[in-house]
Amino acid sequence: MDSELPDIYCPFPQRTNPHVGHTRGHLATWIRQTGLVHRESAMHRFEQADFGAFVGMVYPTAGPEHLDLVADWFVWLFLVDDQLDDGHLGRSPELVRAVVERMRAVVDGSAPAPLPGEELPAAVIALMDLWERTTPNAAPHWRTRFAWHLVTYLTTATTWEAGNRADDVVPSEETYIAKRRHTGAIHVCMDLIEIVTGIEAPESLHNDPRFITALEAACNHVCWANDVYSFEKEQVLGEIHNLVHLVRHHRGLGEQQALDHVAERLALETERFLTAEDELLELYPELTGLLVPYLEGMRSWMRGNLDWSRQTPRYNPADVGQYEEPQQYLEETVLGIAPDHAEAAPCAAEAPRQG
């Protein structure tokens, strides 16, 4: 790519968690126990991404147990997302409907006990473990919100994006921005701020328009920055679900102009966050004890996402080019659906979604 990545405005300090080393070791054990990663190429890509470093940057104050937990959530989300975006399933939503329903049942408590000898997909096994470790002490309204965000991520990623690919639909910028916060599972990650900080934000705060604005701006910042850093790779792969690509498409801009335009919008989202943050702290001095760590958590997400994106090879086009076959790093065991079940589906290598 001849264009240069623009500077992204993010006036928050770089931070990292001191427990990252421990979490890296924990992740290596957990992915094997749950069966999420087996093949050598998938393990190589997993290790290169360094999700332990990522989680340490975006949750810099989490204790070791909570850092391990959110790191497991990260890995689960990224590996499931790879299947839904980069593999043959990215154009075949009907093939993943059953496993998504099984995941939904885990979340809503209606999942049947496994039958004798039944082999569940690794993603379901891992989700059962995550749900059991995350929710026991959480408030009912938090569990409800978290479950809705998680299920909305799964259904949006498996229907809306896959349907667009299958039907060659290019979404509008407005539609994409609204959906992107769900397809990126960023609401799920922001919900986990309450778990790692030990706070319980009342529903009245979550419904406050200033809090909604701050959260939406932070989520947009993370998602759009991801689109900037993954743009080159996604162009190589023909992916349409990227804000830089959509800006080029709908506005007729050049590549560098589109990148700069998105960077300018990112700066506006940062200012929108800062304004809402000031208003919240001024309006609710009695909630300072939970507002400060929550807002700090959003700041850490915006800063940490940038720092990790700059160093990870995950968004480098060579990440795909190093494999003899496209998406060779994917694990069939994650969702329990082998490629030969989708022989009639178009090859998703034409349009994977890299999140």
TrEMBL record:
Keywords: Lyase, Magnesium, Metal-binding. Its cofactor is Mg(2+). It is an enzyme of class 4 (lyase). The keyword Cytoplasm does not apply. InterPro entries: Isoprenoid_synthase_dom_sf, Terpene_cyclase-like_2. Pfam families: Terpene_syn_C_2. Its EC number is 4.2.3.-. GO terms for molecular function: lyase activity; metal ion binding. Belongs to the terpene synthase family. This is Terpene synthase.
